[in-house]
Amino acid sequence: MSGMAPPGLTRADLPSAVVTAPPIGALREKFFVQRAKDDPGPDGGLTRSYQTLALIWASVEPLDGHLILAGRDVAAATGAEAPQLRLLTRYSLFLAEADRIDTILYWRRRRERWRIHRVADLAHRGRFLALDCTLLERVAPSVP
Questions:
Q1: Do 138 and 107 form a contact (C-beta atoms < 8 A)?
Q2: Record's Gene3D superfamilies (predicted)?
Q3: Which of 14, 48, 49, 107 has the greatest CB tally within 10 Å of its CB?
Q4: Closest CA to 83 of 98, 64, 103, 110
Q5: Range in 3-7, 8-12, 98-102 with the lowest mean pLDDT
């Protein structure tokens, strides 16, 4: 089974490449998968609203400093933003395509919206996904 240590070893003894699944109970942060929708406003401009598509549970890992710096180098060359956060969640076909369809995650506990930049299937087994995200916006407390 993926992510399980052989007898006599703990997860900490294994190289990170061998441990492909988060530990049991690690998926404890609730995120709402959303899609932005721009509607014409009363003043002639556009009003942005968000449609919630799904609820997921994930573990949250800040990216290491060297990964952020490397991401900034790539971002500077390509004009994209550098990911700041990695989420590990259960595999879903819907999320496997999230980096191509401009999907947003709303972290209600922190009142933040995150844009998904990269999606990776851990160990290519269709069990868990790693989502690299950047902060899109902080939501005012009056907005649910």
A1: no
A2: Bacteriophage SPP1 head-tail adaptor protein
A3: 107
A4: 64
A5: 3-7
Q: Which structure tokens are listed for 5? A: 């240590």
Looking at the DSSP bridge assignments, the partners of residue 50 are 36
Q: How many CB atoms lie within 10 A of CB 35?
A: 14
pLDDT above 70: residue 90: yes
d(CA 23, CA 59): 10
Q: What span, in angstroms and rounded, lies between the C-alpha atoms of 119 and 98?
A: 7
Six-digit token string for 21 = 């699944």
Distance set, CA 114 to CA 44, 71, 103, 108 (Å):
28, 16, 9, 11
CB contact at 8 A, 89 and 22 = no
Residues recorded for the chain = 144
CA distance 89 to 69: 24
In DSSP notation, the chain reads -TTPPPTT--GGGS-TTT--SPPTT---EEEEEEEEEEEE-TTSSEEEEEEEEEEEEEEEEEPPHHHHHHHHHHHHHHTPPPP-EEEEEE--HHHHTGGGTT-EEEETTTTEEEEEEEEEEGGGSSSEEEEEEEEEEEPPTT--
